[in-house]
């Protein structure tokens, strides 16, 4: 996949789910990466005219409840299933995209990514950590290691056949892709590194073409 | 485990070989990472960033904690007595019993916070030892040190502290606080102090934004805050860490008011479990914080909530906590 020049993102409209969490950081990052328009999604009509959706970090239980209460869950599931709407989830966003949640499978979720996640897999806040990731896959090739900030992070404990693992930590996947779905257990939006968001924007641009 | 039964399983408890992916995708990732660093500044400040747009609720039992989680709280504050009861009681208020905090930790999956007395670094050591997610060095408890706050840089657990103005906020951040809340008058159901302090911080920052760099030295001296943090605040146009409202929030409208005043989220203490219908009120406040700019939604969630907690007028207060004279430096 050849990197797309940044200006190719200028015709893209990216929706950021603004129910709870660090959505402002995602919006700032997407703008920095050259996304044409970044809009907040809080109500169903905000889902019209978006080329992609970003689900931020936050508390997955809160976002999950609000997705149901504000009647956003089904429309999002439908857009991903029927229109292959590109979606990107970080941390809580990754939990909400997962097909299954270990031990808490009753938690409502979008459930389109064929992985099993384990919430708070590393323990309480004092076990939150940063690592520098390397990988032989995009967007890591011939590039410096990527700083990955994990905060009360989930772990991806199982991936389905369709899921492509792009990076791991301690042999556990931390960045995965399945078609138009991108998810990571860490927070690229909290760092200065634009690579993961640019990778997503490239996916969106290719989907739109 | 996964829907189709194929694929590859990972177990964080066991060290699996790095390249044994069963993925059918081309070129499986050969990926590795350096040693992980825990409790960095980014992870401490980052957890507060994850709480943004959320409501943190005071709870005294595991049942209340579960109710708060189900109602959409982004974290809970584990306490033996909620502020309204601490006021009624009038005795020395201290850190809660660790066993009580542990039962709350076991009952929910969201972050659990707990309070220590101002300056009581041993209470902080105890809370860190039981794996608390955030410590609130709180004026709601009786101060343990009338001159100093805890040196929060010494801890792996992040801290939240109260403030009444920009100087106080930046002093707490200098001491290592990763998260700031306004000092309201907790336990009163009266939002006036939280509003006053949010506005004061906002006004200080507005003033700072229009200052010339030459003027920052004197401003730093005037408000008693470190110069580097003043520069950072000017550059960002806001506090360098997440800022929540706290103290006296009792209704969805109160919560939305604090959000419209620029706060990143709200703490609700006595306001929920001292009201007629805690579950409904908790859910309503959560929705009000998400939709704080939408009066239609605010109207819907404000309907039929039953009685809010009985409020107290500020001039009826026996003891004011925000401007507590028991603490001399703030």
Automatic annotation (TrEMBL), chain A:
GO terms for molecular function: glutaminase activity; lyase activity. Its EC number is 3.5.1.2. Transmembrane segments: none annotated. L-glutamine binds at residues 58-60, 119, 151-152. Keywords: Glutamine amidotransferase, Hydrolase, Lyase, Pyridoxal phosphate. GO terms for cellular component: cytosol; glutaminase complex. It is an enzyme of class 3 (hydrolase). Belongs to the glutaminase PdxT/SNO family. HAMAP family: PdxT. This is glutaminase. It comes from Gracilariopsis chorda.
Automatic annotation (TrEMBL), chain B:
Residues 42-246 form the PdxS/SNZ N-terminal domain. Its EC number is 4.3.3.6. One of its GO terms (molecular function) is pyridoxal 5'-phosphate synthase (glutamine hydrolysing) activity. Keywords: Lyase, Pyridoxal phosphate, Schiff base. Pathway: Cofactor biosynthesis; pyridoxal 5'-phosphate biosynthesis. It catalyses: aldehydo-D-ribose 5-phosphate + D-glyceraldehyde 3-phosphate + L-glutamine = pyridoxal 5'-phosphate + L-glutamate + phosphate + 3 H2O + H(+). It holds the Pfam family SOR_SNZ. This is pyridoxal 5'-phosphate synthase (glutamine hydrolyzing). The lineage of its organism: Eukaryota, Rhodophyta, Florideophyceae, Rhodymeniophycidae, Gracilariales.
């Amino acid at each position: 996949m050849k990197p797309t020049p940044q200006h190719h993102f200028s015709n893209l409209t990216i929706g950021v789910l603004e129910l709870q969490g660090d959505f402002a950081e995602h919006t700032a990052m997407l703008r920095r990466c050259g996304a044409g328009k970044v809009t907040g999604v809080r109500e169903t009509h905000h889902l019209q005219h978006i080329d992609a959706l970003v689900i931020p970090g936050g508390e997955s239980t809160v976002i999950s409840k609000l997705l149901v209460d504000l009647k956003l869950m089904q429309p999002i599931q439908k857009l991903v299933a029927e229109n292959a709407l590109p979606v990107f989830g970080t941390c809580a966003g990754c939990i909400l995209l997962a097909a299954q949640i270990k031990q808490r499978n009753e938690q409502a979720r979008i459930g389109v990514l064929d992985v099993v996640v384990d919430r708070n897999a590393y323990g309480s806040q004092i076990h939150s950590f940063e690592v520098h990731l390397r990988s032989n896959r995009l967007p890591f090739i011939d590039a410096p290691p990527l700083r990955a900030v994990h905060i009360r992070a989930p772990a991806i404990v199982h991936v389905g056949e369709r899921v492509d693992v792009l990076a791991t930590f301690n042999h556990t996947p931390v960045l995965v892709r399945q078609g138009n779905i991108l998810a990571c257990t860490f927070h690229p939006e909290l760092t200065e590194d634009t690579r993961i968001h640019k990778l997503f924007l490239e996916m969106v641009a290719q989907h739109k073409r | 485990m996964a829907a189709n039964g194929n694929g590859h399983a990972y177990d964080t408890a066991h060290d699996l070989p790095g390249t044994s992916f069963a993925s059918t995708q081309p070129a499986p990732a050969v990926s590795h990472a350096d040693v992980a660093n825990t409790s960095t500044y980014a992870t401490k400040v980052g957890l507060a960033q994850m709480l943004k747009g959320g409501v943190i609720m005071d709870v005294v039992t595991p049942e209340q904690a579960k109710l708060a989680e189900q109602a959409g709280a982004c974290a809970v504050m584990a306490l033996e007595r909620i502020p309204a009861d601490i006021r009624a009681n009038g005795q020395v208020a201290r850190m809660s019993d660790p066993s009580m905090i542990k039962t709350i930790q076991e009952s929910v999956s969201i972050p659990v916070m707990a309070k220590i007395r101002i300056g009581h670094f041993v209470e902080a050591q105890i809370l860190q030892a039981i794996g608390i997610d955030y410590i609130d060095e709180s004026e709601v408890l009786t101060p343990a040190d009338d001159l100093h706050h805890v040196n929060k840089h010494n801890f792996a657990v992040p801290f939240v502290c109260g403030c009444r103005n920009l100087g106080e906020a930046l002093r707490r951040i200098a001491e290592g606080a990763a998260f700031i809340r306004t000092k309201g008058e907790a336990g009163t159901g009266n939002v006036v102090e939280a509003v006053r302090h949010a506005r004061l911080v906002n006004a200080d920052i507005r003033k700072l934004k229009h200052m010339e760099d030459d003027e920052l030295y004197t401003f730093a001296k005037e408000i008693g805050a470190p110069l580097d943090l003043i520069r950072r605040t000017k550059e960002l146009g806001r506090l360098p860490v997440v800022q929540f409202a706290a103290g006296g929030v009792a209704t969805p409208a109160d919560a939305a008011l604090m959000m419209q005043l620029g706060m990143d989220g709200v703490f609700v203490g006595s306001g929920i479990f001292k009201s007629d219908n805690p579950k409904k009120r908790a859910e309503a406040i959560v929705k009000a914080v998400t939709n704080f700019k939408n009066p239609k939604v605010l109207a819907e969630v404000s309907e039929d909530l039953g009685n809010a907690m009985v409020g107290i007028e500020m001039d009826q207060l026996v003891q004011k906590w925000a401007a507590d004279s028991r603490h001399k430096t703030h």
